[in-house]
Amino acid sequence: MPTGFDILSYDKKLQKYWVYRTLAGIVDISLIFFPTYIISLLFSMSLIPTVLIFHAIYYIYCSVAEGVEGRTLGKRLFNLRVVSHVGNVSMRDSFGRNITKILLLFLLIDILIGLGTEGDPRQRSMDRIFDSLVIEERVEKVKHAHHILHHRSKIAISEELEEPK
Fold it and tell me: Rounded to 10 degrees, what is the CA torsion of 32, 34, 35, 41?
């Protein structure tokens, strides 16, 4: 079975998906990094406490935002949402799937493991453990609308067949 990297090498939709996911991550990192950096300058903090504070805030921000709303500001800008197999991701699962964000190096390893192994190429390894997935919301809304329209047309056709006039 192919890995995520194998599929990523030729699948344009998957490439676009990971570009959006990466850009959403950059937005979220920037939202936390710049205020943290400014505060560290104001309080003359050294590098290690600044890095630790940044990672802690980043982890909490992503976990709470995804647990409450299913997305961070970055994901919202790129129409991405975190879901589980039963709908919205729970707060517990959100904190679990984001644990690698406690250090960006761990997040990179998480992504590489997810793409380097068999399974859904849209999932990081922690997404697989916590049964979550980041979806493109526009695509899912269109698919859902198509499903509803298809279902309604089936009902209309069956009602026409049942009612002889």
Answer: 130
Residue 100 DSSP class: G
- The count of other CB atoms within 10 Å of the CB of residue 35 is 12
Provide the residue type at 19 as one letter. Answer: V
List C-alpha distances in Å: 10 to 6, 15, 54, 104, 132: 8, 8, 36, 27, 24
- Quote the strand ranges of 6-160, DSSP E: 80-84, 87-88, 132-136
CA 98-139-10 angle, to 5 degrees, is: 80
How far is it, in rounded angstroms, from Cα 44 to Cα 21? 34
pLDDT, one tens digit per residue, over 85-104 is 888 999 999 999 999 999 99
Which residue has tokens 């699948």? 11
Q: What is the pTM of this model?
A: 0.80
Q: Are 53 and 92 in contact (CB under 8 A)?
A: no
